[in-house]
Description:
By secondary structure, the protein is α/β, with parallel strands linked by helices. Helix content is 38%, strand content 22%. The protein is globular and about 75 Å long. The mean pLDDT is 97. The chain binds glyceraldehyde-3-phosphate. Glyceraldehyde-3-phosphate is lined by residues 169-170, 264, 297-299, 450-452.
Amino acid sequence: MAGSGVFEGIKEGEVFKYYTDGEWKNSTSGKSVAIINPTTRTTQYKVQACTQEEVNKVIESSKIAQKQWAKTPLWKRAELLHKAAAILKEHKAPIAECLVKEIAKPAKDSVTEVVRSGDLISYCAEEGVRILGEGKFLVSDSFPGNERTKYCLTSKIPLGVVLAIPPFNYPVNLAVSKIGPALIAGNSLVLKPPTQGAVACLHMVHCFHLAGFPKGLISCVTGKGSEIGDFLTMHPGVNCISFTGGDTGIAISKKAGMVPLQMELGGKDACIVLEDADLDLAAANIIKGGFSYSGQRCTAVKVVLVMESVADTLVEKVNAKLAKLKVGPPEEDCDITPVVSESSANFIEGLAKDAKTKGATFCQEYKREGNLIWPVLLDHVRPDMRIAWEEPFGPIIPVIRINSVEEGIHHCNASNFGLQGCVFTKDINKAILISDAMETGTVQINSAPARGPDHFPFQGLKDSGIGSQGITNSINMMTKVKSTVINLPTPSYTMG
Ligand code: G3H
């Protein structure tokens, strides 16, 4: 049960505490934020509504802790991360339970998220000791006009305080994808969890607490975005922001100061299916890529662009698989579970209605109960429909029939997003040419878009993001190069 056993101290009465200075505390605001269970649509948990004054204190302790942590040997930092990873995995069940209740993630996928997160933390520790243990040595006479009188030694140093803001759909995994790299690189970390997913995050942070990280090194503040959101992202004590989410990221990038930003925002990941594709493989990937976690993934297949000559067969195959998806509560491990909030369900419904009015073919009857939306494939979608461009973040996939590969690439590149895309064909040469032409951070050949494995580079173009993620890239992004130059005597004074 969430809040029981080893997690006892993170809650008082009905409300979960926030974490700072190595302690669990109640906010002086006396206020809390309610977390609504997407399935029951009733309040499941409550978290502290922290104040700006508390944020100031958190960042101050974070700054102090970081100075000492940066001096802690790399192998010791790695050792603590391995410990946290093990504790997290050991407590996968209560953390997964929070995910089921807060974000309606199917039970099995919730456990997978926690286990994947433990593995991610361990990989950060291993990768960190390798890449941070190396620097560069340069000599001056490789640049015109210089003698060999300067030796330059470079190493990677931490940035300071990293602010991590993960989204609701992977609150644990996308939090540790920021925490692991930040800590191994010698930074301290302040976590602002999403409201839905905050309690899973607090449990995860407690695993770091149990591992014995120094006080103040990792903090977790909860509260209303309107009260502490901008205050955190514009805080002069923050030295780096790593954000995953929607449009808010664009606003943050405009307001943040002169600090490195890592942003993973939305996507409208296209799936291009050519005439020679293995249509069974394509259909299976459209189902998995489009409907897992009810389409609430930035890397979900969000538009299918299929050659007209194979469109009927593909649609038929997708529909046959779609009919087998189990719809219902996350506790029963259903494939399609309620979407995260009523406003999200309303938004998805708006896209469906728009497509209906403009003449799309609904392969299934549109059905909704509360936040639960039955999966739908929309055929014959045209570019004048909102669903052709907007990101539903729900179990609804538009199919646009194309007459040439160029038409598909054109549609994909006309999007404001550029996260991932995929192409299904048996012709590898064509696949490579299409990958080169698609303006997205990643193109998957013969598989659905996906971020993992977590050490792969992961990045979006245009409105889909800033910088590149994946464990190695995140560690590098959360460091700065420091040079020390040894100046030698000029050649006239040298011996020999
Ligand atoms: O929602 C955005 C996530 O980064 C997608 O991750 O491809 O592992 O589902 P995933």
